[in-house]
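Tutorial handout. Part one gives the primary structure; part two gives the three-dimensional structure as tokens.
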Amino acid sequence: MPAPLAISVYSDIVCPWCYVGKRRLEAALALPGSPKDVRMSWRPFELNPDLPVEGIERGVYRARKFGAAASAALDAKMAKTGRELGIAFAFERMSRTPNTRLAHRLIWEAERQGRQNALVERLFAGYFEQGVDIGARHGLESLAAEAGLERSGVDRALDDTESLAAVVDLEREGLRLGVAAVPFFILPGPFAVSGAQSPEFWGRLLAQVAVAPVAL
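Part two.
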């Protein structure tokens, strides 16, 4: 039996294009002829590593980064893109731009529990569609429970230094690989994809991956 197609995804939960990229890849994988046995591994890339632990008011952060008018225009454009993919971006519900270090520690733990994809989905949906503060422990605990994570593992990930060290190591590994922006997808062989590419693009690439020689 052939091994599952392994795809490593570097992303940050506060990146709307990472959510879009996830949906577009999933749409491609649902097409006839696409591989059905896929193992996705989510890897950390913090867009705002220097934010305070408690995060910052989103309006203030966005105004500083883009300007208020440009920020509103970007949100409107992203909302339109989301509707095309079934994502109900609710930027008006998002009061804070969070520090995502704790969320990445929880994603690492979710992989150990075999629930990583489920947790990443809940984090994206919780943050972008429900306005959950994913930088706050109570928000993360609630989403972890919804994703089916075992509570003692959640507590360890949010409290112990093991998860912190693991996330830092994974981030450094990404930098060594040349990851400079997200989403960034690494597939077997010479294949790597930057950005939230279309399902059509993914369909063509997955066909190439399927016939590429396997390195021994």
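Part three, for discussion. The chain has one domain: 5-211. DSSP finds nine helices and six strands in the chain.
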